Structures are given as structure tokens and as C-alpha cells.
Amino acid sequence: MTKAPATPLLDTVRIPADLKAVPDRDLPQLAGELRAEMIDAVSRTGGHLGAGLGVVELTIAIHKVFDTPHDRLIFDVGHQCYPHKILTGRRDRIRTLRQEGGLSGFTRRAESEYDPFGAAHSSTSISAGLGMAVAADLSGENRNVIAVIGDGAMSAGMAYEALNNAGALDARLIVILNDNDMSIAPPTGAMSAYLARLASGRTYMGFRELGKKLTAYLGKTVDRAITRAVEHARGYVTGGTLFEEMGFYHIGPIDGHSFEHLLPVLRNVRDNARGPVLIHVVTQKGKGYPPAEAAADKYHGVNTFDVITGAQAKAKPNAPAYTAVFAEALVQEAGYDEKIVGVTAAMPSGTGLDKLAIAFPERTFDVGIAEQHAVTFAAGLAAEGYKPFCALYSTFLQRGYDQVVHDVAIQGLPVRFPIDRAGFVGADGPTHAGSFDTAYLAALPGFVVMAAADEAELKHMVRTAAAHDDGPISFRYPRGEGVGVEMPARGEILAIGKGRVVKQGSKVALLSFGTRLADCLLAAEDLDAAGLSTTVADARFAKPLDHDLIRQLARHHEVLITVEEGSVGGFGSHVLQFLAVEGLIDHGLKVRPMVLPDIWMEQAKPEAMYAKAGLDRAGIVATVFQALGQKAVGVGAAG
Ligand SMILES: Cc1ncc(C[n+]2csc(CCOP(=O)(O)OP(=O)(O)O)c2C)c(N)n1
Ligand SMILES: CC(=O)[C@@H](O)[C@H](O)COP(=O)(O)O
Ligand SMILES: [Mg+2]
Question: Mind telling me the catalytic residues?
Fold first, then answer.
């Protein structure tokens, strides 16, 4: 591991107020040190690197010009906020990023007064900033509100809803569009092409014209400084027609790595802007770190790495990753059925749909960060007889819930929902945990809701979903590796609403939904060893429930435990409802539903999070003993 870099100037800046003493001419040196510090920190922790590297100058310039935290600075998504964290009193903890007990990888209100709004899901910054700007107006506060939003985040409908509202309200809001021509993957869509055209220079305004415009809008003090910036930027200024039509004053594109361009523009906007302003800043994702600049993904998200070579640590896998199994199975099924199409919302590699795009490019659609649209777009495809697999992370599907209800479920359209990142995801923490999908999908009439217990089951579920044309169907699976089971050459079509008994016992029944099955089997070993003969079943379906299986487990066991990687209201709640309605708990059956706890679980390794949640081998054993009113004395590995 390399030594931490020398950072003499950065050492003088603990909080933004210290920046005021740094002369403008020394800011490039500060930027160099800040970059080195961030690279060193992320090389030790892993995390989001490319986005932060791209906004080093922008972050310094904003903190230099504005008076944070009185002025509100909001980063969209928040994955680019590491330089901001270093400059806002958190440098001493920067090497704890995303670790258990450490700094969050995103902005977080509870973490710092310099984080006025928490984020992690994209495209919320303009709405939140507008709310703050209006609040300042209402309470007579004189403060600036700045929202920094990326070109990728600009593809979501919510950003336009906010622009639309801000333009109409004429609120004093500063939006900085950080255009690095990248999302996680290269950005898609007409808006991205439009921004590229603006940045390409074809529609640049001459600086004289800009000077006139700015003078008219911002006042007399503006034009000389702006003109200088514009000269340095080789005429990087344009009319920004779309944003102007929406009521924004549009400045840019300007060079987001040049303090000579950033500082005068920000100062003039600070001192003179009256209504909503959009500053279009062009940056380079991964800037200043050659391995990141050279990488296709610009080191969007990295493992720990070697600073000199950029080589990332790779743990040797014990089993294939669920995402890879899903992707391969989907490509296989798509080879058999030309009606199968894939939809991703800006996560081609994260969901594995990049594999489908290689095999069947014309049947794979990256719609941008637009989950709501992705769901209804898939519904439209299904309405025309196609078989869309709308592959989203559990946490991001939340954004498309009304579309799932209104456009898919009510119409009974056979959209397939592969739901990745089910359960805890680890370092991304509570914003990215896949906790609620079973609860919110299993509540919907006509929905088939599955969870894979292992990677072979996932393969079966891909085939089952492909074959299911009677209505919507979902299947969830976690981040990370499978358990190493033998894989079938092709998935089987599962009987809808039928679970399976994996191990037969007689006193205790563990009914698992999802990948806690492995821990249930381990817990069963301990329980058997303690004289409690244990049945383990894999429910496969939360909807429709396997009524016969549940009846059999309820009637022939003293204890019934349901186990899932989801919130209350999901699988266990449906089982309890059924047991109650059927009168199966009227005669002493001891039922305990095990779900994710009712807290926002902090980031840690997933195993540690499950242990804390009590959803591991030891927790399952303890729950059984508690149900029986016994103490778990000397129980195997669980004790
Ligand atoms: C609603 C939502 N969908 C998907 C994501 C995953 N995601 C995180 S960052 C990102 C790309 C953002 O691109 P951009 O805003 O341009 O920022 P950059 O990384 O280029 O700086 C995506 C798709 C998310 N955070 N939120
Ligand atoms: C910031 C963001 O939302 C994504 O970059 C996310 O961190 C990706 O997570 P995975 O690593 O699980 O794909
Ligand atoms: Mg971008």
C-alpha cells in the first residue's frame, strides 16, 4: 500500500471557511492535493471514484464562492461528494468511507450540517433545492441554494418536473448541470444528445452576445468578468434554449476544471441572479487519475485498488454471481424466444443486461435513469405481445411503483420483473437496501412474486417468468455470489404457487423465501443436534402462496418460522394472514415471522447486517428456542 500523499495546502483547509484564505491562484494546487487525497482514501476503502474526481474543481469553487452551510449545497445522487466531505470537516474520517461505523458514501443530513439534503437515488436535487429556495423566501432568509446534478441524473422525469416548477415559481435557485457525458455507462437518450450538441460548440453564442445577455439579466457588474471567463473558455457559451424556454437563465457550457471559468461565473450568479439559473459545466469523469480516465466506466465504482497501477482487488469467487446467472439465463431464453426483450434504467452492467445487449442488441433497451418510464415502456411492449424483462434493482423499482400498479398490474400485463439487489447490499447502506419489494408487490392482485433460494433456482425462475404470459411476475435475488449449487443446463418451468420441502423433520418447520435458505439449513443442523427435528422448506412463491405446503407444515409441526430478506408486510405477513384465516393458529401452533428489522440498517458487510438483523443461522436457532420457551444452551455453531 502506498503512503498517504503530502498535502500541505489541503492541510490548512478543514472547513470551507478556511478556503477564503486561499488565494485564487493557489486553487489548482489545492485541487491536485484534494484529488490525491481522495484517490488514496478510495484506494483503501473502495467506493465511487470517477464522479468525485470529475468535480474536484467545481466543489472547491462552490465552497470558495458560497457561504456553506448557510448557503445550501445539494449534490444529486451524492456519489460525487467525497471531495465535499474532505473539505467539510470530515477529512479525518475519509478512510472510513462506506465501512461499518464509518462515513456514508453519500450525502447525509445526520452526518454533517454541510449536507443539507441526503441522497443516493438520483434526480432529486432540483426538487429539494427548490423547496429550500421557496422556504428561504417564505421565511425572509437571504440564502443561495445550489443543486449540482449530473447529465445522467438529468435523464429522469423528476428533474424536469422540478425545472418546470422552478421556472414557473421564478425561485432563486442555482442549478449546476455537471455534464461529463457519462452516466454509469455512456448516457443514452435525446437529452444526452442535446447536451452533447450544446457542448460541441455548434450552437455556442459569441461572447459579445453573451455579455449583453448577462448584463441585461444579471446587472452591470457582470459582463467584464464573464467575458474574461468566456475568452478563456474559447467561447464556451450558448443560449441554452431548452432551459431558457423553461424559465431558467442558462449560462454555459463552461469548463468545469478551470477556476478561471468557474469563479467569475459563480461569483456573478451569487451576487446578481434573481430567478432560477442553470449553469452548464463540462467536466471529465475520472479526471486527473489516468487509470480512471482510461477505463470505460471511468472508475464509477471500484474495489480497493493499487494507486500506482490502478489494479483493483478481486476476490476469487466461490460461486457465480446472481447477476451473471440471471444474465446468462436470460440470454439463453432469449435465444429460444424472439419475443423476449430486456429493459434497463441506466444499469446495464449492474443488472447484467449488457450481456443481452451483446447477444441481442436490437432487443435490449437502456432507457436512462427513468424507472417509472421503464416500467410503463415495458407495459407497452407487453401489451403488444412482447415479453419484456424489466430488470431493476429492488431499491430503484420503488420509484416505478405507481406504474407497476396502474400500468402493469391492473391491466394484467405480463411484464417480467427481475429484481436484483434484494435484501442488504452492504456498503451502499440503507438507501440501496432491497427491503420492500415483496411487501409492495405481493399486495397486488394477480401478481406472481418469487424469490430465488440459490443460483439454480434463479435459472428456473428466469425460464418460469419467460413462460408466464398470464400476468405480471417478479423474481428477486441478492447482490453477490450464489451458494455453489450444481447448475442445470437450462432452467425448468416451475409450477406457479408451489414450494418445495428441502429437508423433512417433525417438530420445527423453517419456511424460507429467498436466499436465507442456506442459513435455515445450517440452523436446522443445530436444531436437529439439539433434539428438535426440523423441516426446511423453500416457499419459492410469496404469491400465490403454496397453501397445501403451509397447511402441512402448520398441522404437523409445533413451531413454524418464516424467514425472508424483506420488510414486514411481505412473505411472512401473507403466511400469517393465511394461517389466521384458515384457523391454523387457533390450536397452539407457535408462529414466528422473521423479517428485516424495522430500522434503517447502517452500512456494513452484508453478513454482519444479517447477523445484526437476527436473520442468520444463530438468529434463526434463537428464534426457535424463544418460541418454545427454552434456552439455547450449547447449541452447535449457533451458540
Ligand atoms: C433512481 C436511481 N436510479 C439509478 C441509480 C444508479 N446510479 C447511480 S449514479 C448513476 C449515474 C449518474 O450519472 P450522472 O448523474 O451523470 O453522474 P456521474 O456519475 O456521471 O457524475 C446511476 C445510474 C440511482 N442512484 N438512482
Ligand atoms: C450510486 C449508485 O446508485 C450506484 O453506483 C450503486 O452504488 C451501484 O451499486 P452496485 O455496486 O450494487 O451496482
Ligand atoms: Mg454524468
Answer: 285, 371, 399
